[in-house]
Amino acid sequence: MDMSAVALSVVAQLAARSPRQASEAALVQAMKDAVISTDPAAFDTLRRDLRRARITEIDLVDGYFPAVARALGCDWVGDSAGFAAVTIGMARLQTLLHRIVRTSPVELPVDSLSILVVLPLGEQHSFGVQVLAEQLRRRGAFAHVLITPAMDRLQDLVCSGRYDGAMVSVGCDQGVEPAARVVRSIRQASQGRLWVAAGGSMLERMPDMQAKLGADIATQDPDLAMVGMLTAKAARAVAEARGTEGALQRLETA
Prior knowledge:
Elements: H1 3-15, H2 24-35, H3 42-52, H4 57-77, H5 83-103, E1 114-119, H6 126-138, E2 142-147, H7 151-159, E3 165-169, H8 176-190, E4 195-199, H9 209-213, E5 217-218, H10 222-253
Helix pairs in contact: 1-2, 1-3, 2-4, 4-5, 4-6, 5-6, 7-8
C-alpha cells in the first residue's frame, strides 16, 4: 500500500475541518494500515502529515492508539486479519507508545500519587494498561504496571506501603474471577487501606463490576479514579494526624 497516498487522503479530509470534525474512522484506518504495512517506516511517513494536521502525541496515546488496537482485535476475531498482521501491528503500537514516553518524560514531585496498575491473569490487553499508565503519569501520578502478577509478588508490593491506590483492568469474561482475586488480595495485604478502582472494556458489559469485584469504584475515567485515591489519601493523613495527637495527649496526662 502507498502510505504517501493514504497520508495525502487523510490530510485532505482534515484540511477543511478542525481535528474534532475529522473522520475518526478514516484516521484509525490509515493508522492501522500503517502499523501492519510491510514497510516498517510507514507510520513515520503518515505521522509527518498528521502533525501538520494538528494530531498531537497526546491525541495518539489517549484516543487513536487504543482505537487502532481495538480495530486490530476486531479484525482478528472477524478473521479479516491474520495472526502475523495483528502481532506485527500490536508490536509496532507498543514501540510507538514507548517512543512517545521516552521523548516526553514527565517530572513528578516526590509526594505525587503512586498507583499500582494491575492486569490480572488471563487478560491479553497489556497495551491498554500501558496506555493507562502513561495517562496517569501525564496527570501527575507515579504508575507501576504489573502484568499477570503472582499473588505473593502483588501482596509484597502492597505491603511495602509505597502505593496510594490500585487500578485493576478487566477486558474479558475470563478475567472477572482473577480480577476479583486480585482485589481481595490487595484488600487483605493492605488491611483495607488501599483504594481500588476497577475498569477496562468489560465494564461496558458488566455494569455491576464494582460490586462483583469488591472495588471502591468501577470507571473508565482515570481522573475520577484519581480523585477517589486523593480523597482516601487525605482521609488517611487526617486519621493518622488525629491518632498521633491523641497519643501525645495521653502521654501528657499519664
